[in-house]
């Protein structure tokens, strides 16, 4: 019988729509054996998830997803790579301290984003964001919540419109207010020193988001060539990250096609790294 797992999903403690207890119930009812709640840059929902898991008879392990900076030769700025952490001690003092730093900076950054949007002519407030569509009971506020507020206020018609090239949340003024991220090696060390396992999240999102790999793609053959270039780069990068303590790759994720997953599994096996699966469910 298949051992059914999902090692990547989000709750209202970051940008998900459902409480941890509600999520654990859903996974139990759908035949899952083991799951990991991986909220962004935070672990506040883990205790609730574990209590629900124990009551319902489903294994819940500690998890989180950390946004990190990876410095590469092909970009003047670091690229965004997410690191998943599993089976760490959520009471580790260093882990708690670092995550609190990120939480405090996010609050200050949100204030800066609101102020800049006001200067740009968008009349929104922190209270408007708290009451925005789709927020549900989220404790986390991010750009998607700001986009929903802009929809509620009638400035745009959809969340996606706020993220179009050069528009509002993708404007230079807003993009200059950068999210605070950890260096990728520091995030890996933080997870490792907390007794956990560090895994690279959704590698194919790097391929999709970095123009270096996709800017010349105009045909199916171009995409095949671009992916070959990407996988060669990824393999070399993973060798360095493995030396820094990275233990696995999220090979199965909605951003990866069946062929992509097969290539990622091949790389993981070659480098003797763990292979993980995650839905990245947000509700």
Description of the structure:
With 283 residues, the chain is α/β, with parallel strands linked by helices. The chain has two domains: 5-99 and 179-277, TIM Barrel, CATH 3.20.20; 100-175, DNA polymerase, domain 1 (Orthogonal Bundle), CATH 1.10.150.650. 46% of the residues lie in helices and 14% in strands. The protein has twelve helices and nine strands. It has helices at residues 20-29, 46-56, 93-119, 126-130, 143-152, 159-162, 172-175, 184-193, 203-209, 211-214, 220-243, 258-270, and strands at residues 5-6, 34-36, 59-61, 63-70, 79-86, 182-183, 197-200, 248-252, 274-277. It has a six-stranded mixed β-sheet. It has a three-stranded parallel β-sheet with strand order 1-2-3. Helix 12 (258-270) links the parallel strand 8 and strand 9 (274-277). Helix 1 (20-29) packs parallel to helix 2 (46-56).
Short overview:
The protein is an alpha/beta fold. It has helices at 20-29, 46-56, 93-119, 126-130, 143-152, 159-162, 172-175, 184-193, 203-209, 211-214, 220-243, 258-270, and strands spanning 5-6, 34-36, 59-61, 63-70, 79-86, 182-183, 197-200, 248-252, 274-277. It contains 12 helices and 9 strands.
What key phrases describe this protein's structure?
283 residues, alpha/beta, TIM Barrel, DNA polymerase, domain 1, 6-stranded mixed sheet, 46% helix
Secondary-structure topology with pairs:
Elements: E1 5-6, H1 20-29, E2 34-36, H2 46-56, E3 59-61, E4 63-70, E5 79-86, H3 93-119, H4 126-130, H5 143-152, H6 159-162, H7 172-175, E6 182-183, H8 184-193, E7 197-200, H9 203-209, H10 211-214, H11 220-243, E8 248-252, H12 258-270, E9 274-277
Parallel strand pairs: 1-2, 2-3, 4-6, 7-8, 8-9
Antiparallel strand pairs: 4-5, 5-7
